[in-house]
Amino acid sequence: MKKKLVYTLFFSVLSLLATAQEKQITEKAKEKYQPNFMVGIDVLNTGVSFFSDRQMIQGFVSSKIKGNTHGIIEAGFDKNIYQNNGYDAKANGPFVKLGAFYMLAKDKENEFNGFYAGGKVAGSFYKQEYLAIPIRGYGGSASSVSMPASSQSSFWLEGTLGGRVQLFESNFFIDVNIQPRYLIVASKQDEVVPMIVPGFGKSSSKFNMGFAWNIAYKF
Questions:
Q1: Among residues 76, 218, 48, 195, which one has the least CA distance to residue 132?
Q2: pLDDT category, 6, cuts 50, 70, 90?
Q3: Over residues 179-204, mean pLDDT
Q4: C-beta separation of 89 from 131 below 8 A
Q5: Domain boundaries, the chain
Q6: Which end of the chain is more exposed for a tag (fewer CB within 10 A), N or C?
């Protein structure tokens, strides 16, 4: 009888210790990571699309990784034309950007309010068509040639510098940022450098500047 009581007491203590340890591990796991996704859409460029040749919609998903570091994925679709210096081209297709940013300064009461800086790697896979490409003919006469639609791809590096502010006490945020861009590589059609790249903008120069005004929601 005594042995039975000792065994019962022993296994009861082991069960209590195992339960306490499991609870402690679960609590630590919860403290280590909590879902904090933020989803946003660029309302500025979407709105401008109704009044310009460029039709673009883009959005992002970001999440706090650790400390002041946040990961971010952006994606969108861009349709645009280029008509300058005798060129007449159009391009359209999706683009995606992957990177991270660091909160340089943040609100003590809300760590998602503040200013940030970071960088992204971006790429676009699109279709382009040249309706006119200027060429110099015999005797200095000017003429042009056209090229059929083709599939192309381009990649660039993009910085980001901006800020976020919470709308009252809701889960909505305003996120505004500027995006300096540098085109790394772009595929060519018959050795013709692309004049426009979806997601990057006009690529007659390797440098470009983007701007986004987002409405975001934090889950």
A1: 195
A2: very low
A3: 92
A4: yes
A5: 1-32, 35-218
A6: N
Q: Where are the alpha helices (DSSP H) in the chain?
A: 2-32, 43-48
Single-letter amino acid code for the residue at 74: E
Give the E-state strand segments of the chain in sequence order.
Answer: 37-42, 55-66, 69-84, 87-106, 114-136, 142-166, 172-186, 196-197, 201-202, 207-218
Distance CA(6)–CA(79), nearest Å, equals: 78
Mean pLDDT of the region 16-42? 63
CATH top-level class of 35-218:
mainly beta
DSSP state of 52: S
Gap between the Cα atoms of 128 and 31, Å rounded? 49
Instruction: Find tokens 């390797």 and name the residue.
Output: 206
Tokens of 38: 């933020």
- Compute and round to an integer the Cα radius of gyration of the chain: 27
